[in-house]
């Protein structure tokens, strides 16, 4: 018995109507591959058509819960409701409610699922903690932010240029920065300067 194609199973009239829905909507096939998204869904998470559900930007725990909901539909559930976190196209994370129903062929075999997504709200970004800097590294970062050169820092701090370079390396390492400019930006971001 040939597998019924998910998109063929939807009537020619259904897809244009679903495209017009202003809330994010999607359809996955029985292998959990995203086969269709409306514009609102693409605006929310990007174009994921042709990708497996693991590409939807879910946390591992949420992905497991989404797969459990899919299995419940395979086992006869008329619909499932789920709350998960997803990554938006811009990388920010949002909490969403997903309501989905199974799509079945004429013989009643589940060939996929159709879902609607409601954005519940933004997720607070994780609090970035300032790394611990030694007093000399803190002074070095402050002088970097003021635009001091290595030579001027050495004079101001009454140490050698080589010691200044070592302090700069320590600041870069502590802040996870690759340049002095990036270290200053990260230092400002976490409130060190």
Apparent shape = rod-shaped
The strand order across the widest sheet is 2-1-5-4-3
Instruction: State the distance separating the first and last CA atoms.
Output: 68 Å
Low-confidence stretches: none
- Could you name the CATH homologous superfamily of the largest domain? PAS domain
Give the class-level CATH name of the largest domain: Alpha Beta
Tally the helices: 8
Strand content bin: 15-25%
Total DSSP E strands: 5
| Main sheet record | 5 strands, antiparallel
Helical amount among residues, as a percent range?
Answer: 25-40%
Average of the residue pLDDT scores:
87
Order of helices and strands: HHEEHHEEEHHHH
Structural class: alpha+beta
Number of domains: 2
Q: Please identify, by name, the CATH architecture of the largest domain.
A: 2-Layer Sandwich
CATH topology grouping of the largest domain: Beta-Lactamase
Query: How big is the Rg?
Result: 26 Å
């Amino acid at each position: 018995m040939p597998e019924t194609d998910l998109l063929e199973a939807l009537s020619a009239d259904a897809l244009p109507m679903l495209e017009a829905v202003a809330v994010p909507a999607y359809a996955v096939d029985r292998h959990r591959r995203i086969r269709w998204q409306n514009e609102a869904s693409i605006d929310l998470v990007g174009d994921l058509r042709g990708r497996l559900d693991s590409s939807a930007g879910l946390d591992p725990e949420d992905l497991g819960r989404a797969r459990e909901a899919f299995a419940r539909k395979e086992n006869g559930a008329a619909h499932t409701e789920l709350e998960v976190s997803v990554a938006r196209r811009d990388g920010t994370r949002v909490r969403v409610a997903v309501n989905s129903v199974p799509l079945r062929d004429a013989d009643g075999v589940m060939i996929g699922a159709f879902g609607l997504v409601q954005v519940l709200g933004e997720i607070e970004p994780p609090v970035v903690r300032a790394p611990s800097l030694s007093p000399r590294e803190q002074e070095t970062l402050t002088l970097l932010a003021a635009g001091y050169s290595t030579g001027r820092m050495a004079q101001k701090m009454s140490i050698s240029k080589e010691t200044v370079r070592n302090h700069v390396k320590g600041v870069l390492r502590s802040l996870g920065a690759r340049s002095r400019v990036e270290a200053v930006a990260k230092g400002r971001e976490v409130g060190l300067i």
